[in-house]
Amino acid sequence: MAIKPPPDRLYGRAVGHTLRARQAELIETLLPRLRWPVPFTITPRETWLEIGAGGFEHAEAIARLHPEIGLIACEVFANSIASLLSRLAPLNGVETIPPNLRVHDDDARPLIRSLPDASIARAYLMFPDPWPKARHAKRRFVHPATLADLARILKPGGEWRIASDDPTYQSWVDQVFAETTLFTLLEATSTRPADWCPTRYEAKAIRAGRTPRYWRFARA
Ligand SMILES: C[S@@+](CC[C@H](N)C(=O)[O-])C[C@H]1O[C@@H](n2cnc3c(N)ncnc32)[C@H](O)[C@@H]1O
């Protein structure tokens, strides 16, 4: 399969709209406390990674459901990060920051390249931007080059969980993973497995009548 290498920036649009004053204040004051590599305030049993966290609903749910793990969630859009921060901002002085959640507020790919070998036990890529046109295939996060980077940072047997509602992306995932020996397919299903958390884009897709697909791949 001849696929062009990924461009430097995967998202071909501005990284957010103008922030409201409160959002800008939270980015200024609260984000530095959460921004990776600020250490987790627990000693995590293992570290997980989420790529393209959107409004962080899934990341927050995962972090609260698994208090023993550390989760680094990556997102480029300042408005989306501000939406997480608004939910975490102390309410009546009560702290709501999950001790095991950290945010990488930039492109996930350089972060992935900077992480040590076998340092991540699980990665999530939930409803990535589909880039359905063939000429944009190089922008898709699932890409042979990215597979090699993910394989390096995942522990042997570590899982990469992916979901997509876009038919072109669904075929693409099957095709790209069929051509690698770095990962083995554990499960592919159209029903969200019981231990997965919902996401905002998943709800949107189901409302629009699309059928998501969920994959679990293991680092070989
Ligand atoms: C379609 S949204 C899905 C959001 C969320 N995962 C969900 O399911 O609701 C994809 C998100 O990935 C983010 N994204 C795309 N490329 C990225 C990259 N290279 N690094 C970090 N985030 C990225 C986008 O900004 C966008 O918020």
TrEMBL record:
Record field: catalytic activity: guanosine(46) in tRNA + S-adenosyl-L-methionine = N(7)-methylguanosine(46) in tRNA + S-adenosyl-L-homocysteine
Single GO cellular component term: tRNA methyltransferase complex
EC supergroup of this enzyme: transferase
Keywords: Methyltransferase, S-adenosyl-L-methionine, Transferase, tRNA processing
Transferase listed as a keyword: yes
Binding site for S-adenosyl-L-methionine: E50, E75, D107, D129
The organism's place on the tree of life at top rank: Bacteria
Transferase as UniProt keyword: yes
Gene Ontology MF terms in the entry: tRNA (guanine(46)-N7)-methyltransferase activity
Binding site for substrate: K133, D165, T199, R200, Y201, E202
EC assignment: 2.1.1.33
Pathway assigned in UniProt: tRNA modification; N(7)-methylguanine-tRNA biosynthesis
Homology family: Belongs to the class I-like SAM-binding methyltransferase superfamily. TrmB family.
The protein's role, per its UniProt record: Catalyzes the formation of N(7)-methylguanine at position 46 (m7G46) in tRNA.
The name this protein goes by in its record: tRNA (guanine-N(7)-)-methyltransferase
Originating species: Acidiphilium acidophilum (Thiobacillus acidophilus)
Taxonomic lineage from the root: Bacteria, Pseudomonadati, Pseudomonadota, Alphaproteobacteria, Acetobacterales
